[in-house]
Design a protein that fits this description.
disordered N terminus, alpha+beta, ten-stranded antiparallel barrel, 2 domains, elongated, Lipocalin, four-stranded antiparallel β-sheet, single chain, Nuclear Transport Factor 2, Chain: A
């Protein structure tokens, strides 16, 4: 219930469309039947601007942790339905929901991106889009899709039904887990220096790493690595190419402390290699890389542990 919007939409569209039409036409005072009035003419541009303004108000109220202001943007009898069909109804319950969210997650923030707004008759509009919600500003966001049915009542647009839409995470969503790798990193020892630069590919469906190994003041090897999400194995996967003509790949599994990596390689001379690696974060700007079970050809190599830190920016 707290995903995405703390709501989004998608039930049997026809079912809640019929319900919403009834809501839009229902008199505001049940004891005094409303007088017949001529339906207002829908001016798409003006009404769309009004709905977009409401969305901005929602984001502003949410980020201010003002549950009462959030609830005021809903019809008194509005519904919020999550992607498991759990439903709560009424402005009071909606206010309680958001008040609970703000109490449990005092740093939560939200961004809303509208994909489309389509008008249905004179008093209904269907909004679709997606949200990014942060429980902690320094952590990765939760992303979700939503639909909202807006109802025009007494000249004002209000949210009538908000529903989460179940959606498979995109490759970008999965890779947010590894977004901390973006930047420049360095490991220095008596044996030499290893510098790593990581950046997003243009479409953010991959992370690109460039690794330079220096010994005795000169570059002895360069390695390019592309890291992505494998939809077949449901794991991260990386492909590596070195400056001597070798190549390799690795499969990543998330653990309680970091990532467990099974790597294989083919060297320029035709020999093969394998290793079991582990990455453990020790802070926002440091991690430990451990490599065990290292085999190259018929040789067994000793285990390695490397402490890597983020490289400070070059002074201007």
């Amino acid at each position: 219930m707290r995903k995405a919007f703390c709501g989004c939409l998608g039930l049997g569209l026809m079912v809640w469309m019929i319900w919403a039409v009834a809501v839009a036409q229902e008199p505001s005072n049940a004891q005094e039947p409303s007088k017949p009035t001529k339906p207002p003419k829908v001016e798409p541009v003006t009404h769309e601007l009004a709905i977009r303004a409401n969305v901005e108000q929602f984001v502003k109220a949410y980020n201010a942790h003002d549950a009462k202001a959030v609830a005021a943007l809903f019809l008194p009898e509005a519904q919020i339905i999550d992607d498991d069909d759990n439903t709560l109804q009424g402005r009071e319950e909606i206010e309680q929901l958001f008040a609970g969210v703000f109490e449990d997650e005092p740093k939560t923030k939200i961004e809303v991106t509208i994909e489309s707004i389509r008008f249905i008759g004179t008093a209904l509009a269907l909004e679709t889009g997606w949200t990014q919600t942060w429980s902690d500003p320094e952590g990765p966001p939760d992303r979700g899709r939503y639909n909202v049915l807006h109802v025009l009542r007494e000249g004002k647009w209000l949210m009538g039904v908000v529903r989460d839409v179940a959606a498979e995470p995109t490759h970008q969503d999965h890779l947010q887990t590894l977004s901390w790798m973006v930047g420049d990193w360095i490991d220095e020892s008596r044996e030499g220096t290893v510098k790593t630069s990581c950046r997003w590919a243009d479409n953010k469906n991959f992370l690109l790493q460039e690794i330079t190994v220096r010994q005795a003041g000169r570059d002895v090897m360069k390695v390019s690595q592309r890291i992505g999400w494998d939809p077949l194995t449901k794991r991260f996967k990386a492909w590596m190419f070195d400056s001597e003509g070798g190549y390799g790949e690795s499969s990543w599994t998330t653990t309680d402390t970091g990532w467990f990596i099974k790597a294989t390689s083919v060297h320029a001379d035709g020999s093969t290699g394998s290793a079991t690696n582990h990455i453990e974060l020790t802070g926002l700007d440091s991690y430990v890389f451990r490599s065990a079970d290292r085999i190259v050809g018929n040789d067994v190599l000793p285990s390695v542990e490397v402490h890597v830190v983020r490289q400070p920016p070059v002074p201007k």
